[in-house]
# Entry
Amino acid sequence: LANTLTSTIDPNLVLNSQTAQAIAVIGDRWAFLIIRDVFQGINQFEPLLKRSGAARGTLTSRLKSLVQSGILYKNPYQTSPTRYEYRLTEKGLNLGAVVLNSWIWETRWAKDDSIPRVLFHKTCGHSIHPNVLCKQCDKVIHLSDTSYAIASDTANIERTTPRSQRRSKNPDISGEGVNQEYFHVLDILGDRWTALVVAAALFGMKRYDDIVSAIGISTNILADRLKLLVNVGVLIRRPYQERPVRFDYHLSEKGRDLFNIALAMHEWANRWLIKDSSEPLQLKHSLCSGRLESKIVCDQCGDVLEWNQITPKDPSLSH
Ligand SMILES: [Zn+2]
Ligand SMILES: [Zn+2]
# Structure
């Protein structure tokens, strides 16, 4: 997206974007963990509690809000006493592309024992290295080949205020001395400010002041999040001016790789959060001049990957 931006930046661009709207719903450490675990077949309260490490009350309230936002539903699996498990609705299942793109990023850039390192495609039996392709032209999607158009009438779009904007406390998380490999998608999506700073960077914003005006972040929190993102190798800090020396922030390859996750969130929001199909932002693919829509395909057989056709178990070892 960066190449389409000149000096004029719409101050509402980032916060109005579909990605920011998705961040407002799933951009929470516990919510994201729960969604990821339910996708891996963990559906009951106690196992979710054990895996997430959340406090009981926190897990209860996050599950409740995920049910309220229509991502999970409660399914009785036992009577007298009735016990419920949590299952993904169609809206929740549609987050599969976000989860799968997060997995792709994690396997490339992070170390995490709580997700499988290898996934298999049941249909063809191969281990998969999914490709994220443009639906129109079948080419691999790269951030540099994308552009966007802002809807002409954005006046009636409800602006989503990030929840953390209303919080008084914003702990420092600058990640001094953090091992880059232990920085996860969860550390971005689990903190709304970090997520919005990354979104601003994906929209081509490089300078401190531009990011401040785009997402309404206080300067001390922004300084902290920029420091974190530089420390973990998502952003690169470069001087753009001498006397006084000033720096701007560029996405590294690791940072640009986050685009597919943002794109999956954009597409999910388009389908489930945007009313009367008035998209605030339209994404375009410059290689085919078409509307940018992604599909995730198996690199072995070329089929579109459906969540229920993916397994961490090697199918050739079964029976
Ligand atoms: Zn295309
Ligand atoms: Zn396959």
In short: The longest strand covers residues 72-78. Confidence is low (pLDDT under 50) at residues 1-7, 154-169. The first helix runs from residue 13 to 16. Residues 207 and 310 are 41 Å apart (CA to CA).
